[in-house]
Amino acid sequence: MNAAEHSPRRNTVADMEELVSMPKVELHAHLNGSVRDSTLLELARVLGDEGIIVFSDVEHVIMKDDRSLHEVFKLFDLIHILTTDHKTVTRITKEVVEDFAYENVVYLELRTTPKKNDSKGMSKRSYMEAVMEGLRAVTVVDVDFALQTSDTRTSMKGLPINDTCHGARRKKIYVRLLLSIDRRETTEAAMETVKLALEMRDLGVVGIDLSGNPIVGEWNTFLPALKFAQEQGLCITLHCGEVPNHQEIQMMLDFLPKRIGHACCFREEDWKKLKSSKIPVSGERNCFS
Ligand SMILES: CNc1ncnc2c1ncn2[C@@H]1O[C@H](COP(=O)(O)O)[C@@H](O)[C@H]1O
Predict the structure, then answer these.
(1) Residue 71 near residue 64, CB atoms below 8 Å
(2) Which residue has the higher pLDDT, 218 or 7?
(3) Cα of 79 to ligand 1 centre, how many Å?
(4) Beta bridge partner(s), residue 180
(5) Distances from the Cα of 27 to the Cαs of 13, 67, 161, 260, in angstroms?
(6) Is residue 71 flagged as an active site residue?
């Protein structure tokens, strides 16, 4: 046996092509966390030219590879400066869906935080309308984003991933939306997001996500809105255990969300509770220092 046979198998270009070609589901994508670097750089250049930011200061922040948790949320603040106007929200939504479709994601749950920004004449509702506009603007693939029935589990069964159009096969991507509550928000703002989600149910909004910097905010602030959402039948997913906050982890698991994300700072008793409650974990289990 030669050395090559002993060494771990390396991913080849062919392996990558095979992985890309496989149909996939994506259950943990944040809209503003999925923006192309090239788009961010282009937007930063424009704001740089307008004297709103200093391009050279932000370029390396965008292109940096390894980030601490603190740096991740600093980057999101920067991304939000670059993307939060209606036109750009529409553009990034279109691009993000096209990018996932290119990677053969056939079912995409896209989560995003509806944002109110008075200086741009933006309300949470108009932010979401811009997102919907982005879904309608996708041309390279067919996008199914409106719910046919109120029961997603039934309506998603056996869905085709290719449609025939004028004799040619067209790719299809099913997109469902989760509205995120940012941990910096108030109880009232969280409730506004839940009410918006309920109004947008027929447009493919299936649930509510609690996310944002895990060292900011208190679970009790969001509980009334999350309880209301749960009572109304919206699916709830929580960013849980991204930092070691054991009291909060236990309270979140007791809430019985449909899913949690991260779970990287769980203790043995948290795992036990997670397993006995049969709560799935979606998304990255990255641990930041
Ligand atoms: C790294 N782990 C994470 N932990 C917690 N929240 C995260 C996150 N990654 C992203 N977000 C949440 O998603 C927002 C960006 O997308 P949207 O503006 O909503 O589209 C961030 O501001 C943060 O609130």
Answers:
(1) yes
(2) 218
(3) 11
(4) 209
(5) 26, 22, 17, 11
(6) no
